[in-house]
Amino acid sequence: MRDPTLDLKVIHLVRDPRAVASSRIKSRHGLIRESLQVVRSRDPHIHRMPFLDAGHKLGGKKDGGAGSDYHALGAMEVICSSMAKTLQTALHPPDWLQGNYMAVRYEDLVVEPIKTLRQVYGFVNLAVSPDMEKFALNMTSGPGYSSKPFVVSARNATQALSAWRTALSYQQIKQVEEYCQQPMALLGYERVGSPEEVKDLSRTLLRKPRL
Fold first, then answer.
1. Exposed, middle or buried, 97 (CB in 10 Å: 0-12/13-18/19+)?
2. Dmax of the chain from CA atoms?
3. Residue limits of the Sulfotransferase domain (predicted)?
4. Rounded distance, CA 191 to CA 158, Å?
5. What distance in Å separates the CA atoms of residue 96 and residue 101, rounded to the nearest whole number?
6. Do residues 177 and 189 lie in contact, with contact meaning Cβ atoms separated by under 8 Å?
7. Which element (helix H / strand E) includes 14?
């Protein structure tokens, strides 16, 4: 980034941490080793935030599979801590990053694919081809939402955005919000105040990001 002979730009694709947590839980068998590595990579000198539910690790299927999802949720503390540092750097950029960083929310990309795609291409001084716009539109206008992890397919944008709200328990949602409150605030992801608010899909829980 500091090399004057290179013109590098950073496009940082972000997503609601609650949706990230939901995806990691859904893929827990494929990501269990990776989640463990993420948890173990945390700085031992930093105070670790406790789980909101002290018995979470011992939970079972009756409470939403909390026991098997323990490491997937624990990894979110490390992921969001790293994300917070990145976003703080972008919020107060050094000279070499000024004008060379762009955060793109997954939610904006799937709700307004053409508009967001044009913004991304404009950021790197490129023109979007009609074929690329058609591809982006098709990928966000599919018939449904795949329940299988690691499947790339056309999806219904509305279902893709709200899937975490029905997949996670309220306790899991509050745990992620506790870990990820700083990046969520910077990126415009609203926290929920009640289980009823989670289920009210008429609320997008999105506001204008600070970046």
1. middle
2. 58
3. 6-187
4. 19
5. 10
6. no
7. strand 10-14
Relative to beta strand 101-105, strand 10-14 is parallel
Only one residue has tokens 């992921």, namely 79
For residue 9, what are its two tokens? 């730009």
Q: Do residues 155 and 130 touch, judged by C-beta distance below 8 A?
A: no
Report d(CA 207, CA 194) in Å as an integer.
18
| Domain ranges across the chain | 13-199
**DSSP readout, 80-141?**
HHHHHHHHHHHHS--TTTTTSEEEEEHHHHHHSHHHHHHHHHHHTT-PPPHHHHHHHHHHTB
Question: How far is the C-alpha of 56 from the C-alpha of 130, rounded, in Å?
Answer: 49
Check: pTM over 0.85? Answer yes or no.
no
Q: How far is CA 191 from CA 2, 104, 181, 208, in A?
A: 37, 20, 8, 14
Task: Name the residue with tokens 């540092």.
Answer: 85
